[in-house]
Amino acid sequence: MSGKKMWRRMRMSAGWMAGLMLLTHCGGAEESVKDGDTAQETAELDACEAVVQVENLRVVVTEDTYASATAPTATHGGLDRVVVDANPQSEGFLKFNVPQALLQGGVIVRAKLQLNAVDGSSDGPALYQTGTDWSEASLNWNNRPGHASGALLGDQGSIITHQLVEYDVTSVVMEPGTFGFVLVPTSGDGTDFRSSESTGTTLVPRLDLTVAKSVCTRKGTGGDVAWTRVRGGEGFQSFPTRAGGMDAAADGSFVTLAAYNEQGNFGGQTFTSANSFVIAKYAADGSHQWSRAYVPFTPSARLHANAVTLTPLGNILVVGNYNGAPDLGAGPLPPVEDEDDVGLFIAKYSPNGDFVWAHGFAPTGSAQLSQRYVNASRVTSDANGSLLVTGGFVGELNLGGETFVSGTTDSQESLFLAKFSWEGNPLWSLAVPAGTSDLYYDSVSAEDVLTDANGRVFVTGVAGTGRMGATAPSTPFIAAYSPEGALLWSRAFNGATGSLGGLALRPDGSLAFAGAFSGSFSFAGATFTSVPGNSGPSSDAIVGALSASGGDLWVRKHGTGRDESFLDLGVDTAGNITVRAMSNGLFDLGGGPLGHPAEGRHFVARFSASGAHLWSRVMDPDLSMSDMEVLPDGSTLLEGTFRNPVTLNSQEYVAPGGAAELLFLRLTP
């Protein structure tokens, strides 16, 4: 299993089950109150759904050396190897420190000493426990600690050069502390191991610890797993890497974009020919309805589908990028000839996946630009079945009307927004040029787009100086346009840097938004400031609401300096809000900390219409979430990829092909 972590159901032996029973609350003893956490978190630690997490941790040697009988007063602590030999007699010494903080309240299930041999032997050394009252700077043959009272921990046979040699030291390393070991030769054919002074390698002496701990995976009531579906073939399967690759209908059925190499199976036929992308349609219970592969892949005509949406009649609109001149079904798209340039395509398919129409737009502009591109971020539709697409571009871009020009350098991206009729005809397009303060870093880009029942268009993203009301680069913003493309209002979060990646309509016509920020901004009469990280700036997650006219309603901030962010959100018919999130450490979404103290995780959380916490859960670390949709009843659809086994509600799922596979799941309200 790749990586250093596993979550799995286990048959627990009595030896360490007793240790787990001593854990007084979810998450382990080290998750009490940390800097920036609140007393409320501590009080709520017990109110959680717990699982046993098994995690592999590595502890690098603290000191290592060897002693030789032929030079009884010599020290060898600064050398790049530990020598063990019976001719001349040489013994190796290792010292490790296992801190309590590393275990985070967990129980050591297994401990292995790992050494890398740089000179093999026909008969490797024996390992004993020894004392720790020594230093590599002063240890020699005369003052070396003994091992007569230490139990034999292992005795190696033949060792080949560059072999990773392992000794089971579980009987000794059962809890935090300092541990000493001695390698004693059993033959005149000695062995040399890499020491901590070895350069250009990570193969220094180490302890590989398997640690089991009770962790909290869910807070609050709700968010149960209603169903799961695993899809995929023998090869690699994937979803688009950002939100927008899935869309759901009001009845709970949904479509998704996917890709594969070698072969793929999404619930129906197995695809074996190389194609650029797949559209798959599933019923509300996750059962397969149809899946189709599109656009044969060739090295000279590359295409990537980024985002999808459903029209009111169930037609499917797809946007993405291409290079070359691929044919989606109505002839080759306008060529994008430079291999570094990227064009935009828009396409329409019927409710059963039949091709209807497609158009391509190739960027142009100065040959001095190293790359000209059009990046399609998101797509949406309106009551008439129109296609609205937004994203960013560098160079010159014509979407059927005026030609727009981005900034003057490669890195000055400009925003575009365009509307096409249900037949694919251009209705209007606009661009927001790059900011005015910096030729290289002051860009404008879009993250999400949606429409309301009146045809108004709402866009969120990142604004540059002097654009959308922003006073500095990288300022989050939300803007509204009329059905004809006229700017109605914009709200810049001045003082903050970051992005608002999620936008949704609330039942009363107001807007819910979510994202991440660093710095400070004012909203609804209050000031919100991100918490710095341990080593510098860090982002905090925010969720909030604006009125339909752009007025401030409320904001809730979540974060304690661990780069927390909300990636996407959805709203149900009652106005409750669900977010998909990430954090590089423990994350308190309102019900108490979840996750791992030092590793990144994906999260899902549900809030009331006013932002109060309802439930939150952390996902398996080996499940990489790609997208989320919230259904009218408050259920949550999620899709992600996994390669290693993942666990949800004590059920383990294994990738059937051994490569990256797809997982769909639905959570209850």
TrEMBL record:
Keyword Secreted in annotation: yes
Classification via InterPro entries: CBM96 (IPR055372), Motility_Chemotaxis_Reg (IPR052918)
Pfam families in the cross-refs: CBM96
Coiled-coil regions listed: none
Signal peptide boundaries: 1-29
Domain of life: Bacteria
Cellular component, GO, one term: extracellular region
Keywords of the record: Secreted, Signal
Domain Carbohydrate-binding module family intervals: 61-200
Protein's cellular compartments: Secreted
Major site of localization recorded for this protein: secreted
Keyword Signal: yes
Record PANTHER family: CELL SURFACE GLYCOPROTEIN (S-LAYER PROTEIN)-LIKE PROTEIN, PHYTASE-LIKE DOMAIN-CONTAINING PROTEIN
Protein name: Carbohydrate-binding module family 96 domain-containing protein
Organism: Corallococcus coralloides (strain ATCC 25202 / DSM 2259 / NBRC 100086 / M2)
